[in-house]
Amino acid sequence: MSRLIKYHSTRFSIFKIVILTYTMRLPGVLLLLLLAINVRGQNPNLVSNGSFEQYINCPTSISQVTNYCAGWRTFTKGNPDYYHGCHTTRSVGIPRNSAGFQVPAQGNAYVGLLSFEKLWPTMYKEYIAASIPPLTIGATYEVSMSVSLANHSAFGTDDLGVWFYDNGPVTMNTYTLITSSPQVSYSSYGPIIDTQNWVRLSKIFVADSTYDNIVIGGFKDWSTIDTQRVNPGGHCYYLIDSVVINQIDTLSFSYHDTLLLIGDSIIAPFAANAAIFSPSNVFTLQLSNATGSFASPTTVATLATNASGILRGVVPGSVRSGSGYKIRIVSSHPVKTIIEPRSISIGVKS
């Protein structure tokens, strides 16, 4: 049976249940996964309904995301599915439904979508989208989600990703691959084939625009996609849960001494996100001139690490007395700079 039946028939739900309901599998051990690592700060999730718990209407059939799952919409003419504990029919229930059997990674709901289905020479694909608060240009974000391959999928793939955009369409008029390149690709995880457990996918990226929308789905075409067969058939269907976008603190420190003498120690503890910095990274503690300018900074200490640590140095004898000094920490890979805003007075020992 061709997926084209779904395109041209009003009996979409009957077709989708046929291709997804073969034999049910009993659940395996559910891995309890953290949504974010606390060493990266306590910034809130920018996805307001990332676990799909909030609903406008309880789902009554498959192909119901828009106008059912609060804050989420179908991005193309492909129709993803909304599964919730408040369902009125078994096909969209929790944990057993038309996709198989899976307990939510969090809460009582998740979404399912076709990463691809073979329709040679093209592919049928489904995408979900949501609005988010505008990102800050230059800020670093962790983008993560929990994914499980549906029991009846024929393949696992490596094409899942997240595309961020602003000033773009609310939806797109297509059934197949959208040509936009996702800023976040999970291809490095390889084809995801775990049907019993949730696999936590996580990537980090630096925003280069004030993106205010996200799109989740499969972004590869035939020439680049990597698949791994697990069942007969020609489709790949993933369950998605616990979508999290956090702005993460890449580098921070706070220095409280505001009065120093030449020869005094400068001890500057700092917090660094090891996921951001290269193993070859070097942190440098620098001192400005007496007016607070770093045009020709004085290096006080260095430390080769990509994680949190303590920079220790002394006020050098070459420094002149003054009241407008500042200190900063600079990283080498990648290059980042953070300046302590408070001024420091430096004097000469009597």
Structure description:
- The chain is mainly β.
- It has two domains: 4-247, Sandwich (Jelly Rolls), CATH 2.60.120; 251-347, Immunoglobulin-like (Sandwich).
- The protein is 4% helix and 38% strand.
- The chain is built from two helices and 25 strands.
- The strands form seven sheets. Strands 2, 5, 6, 8, 12 and 15 form a six-stranded antiparallel sheet that branches. A five-stranded antiparallel sheet has the order 1-7-13-10-11, with no helix packed on it. The chain has a four-stranded antiparallel sheet with strand order 20-19-23-24, with no helix packed on it.
- A hairpin with a 2-residue loop joins strand 23 and strand 24.
- The longest helix is centred in the N-terminal third of the chain and has 9 residues, at 12-20.
- The radius of gyration is 26 Å and the shape is elongated.
- Residues 1-41 have low confidence and may be disordered.
